[in-house]
Amino acid sequence: MRKLILILGLSLAGAAWASNCPNLMKEVDAKLQTKPQLSKADADKVAKLRADGEKFHKEGKHAESEAALGEAKKILGI
After folding, report:
1. pTM
2. Which pLDDT tens digit goes with each residue over 29-69?
3. Which of 12, 34, 46, 56 could hold 61 in an S-S bridge, CB 3.0 to 4.6 Å?
4. Could you give phi then psi for residue 45, rounded to 5 degrees?
């Protein structure tokens, strides 16, 4: 019974964590829609980080996804 509760708890925690990645992607996308003034290098880096964030999310690598998207948000000033 303890194992079942532990497995259920971990599953719910993982699902909650995973659901944050799409929110971060939406924040980055919304800021990009405003056409922020970025250097070519920063714009390219944000685009790569955004793509990496989505890729990692789809692969179930949510910590990596959040790190990439968090870095994109920093560059965008959000």
Report:
1. 0.75
2. 999 999 999 999 999 999 999 999 999 999 999 999 999 99
3. 56
4. -65, -45
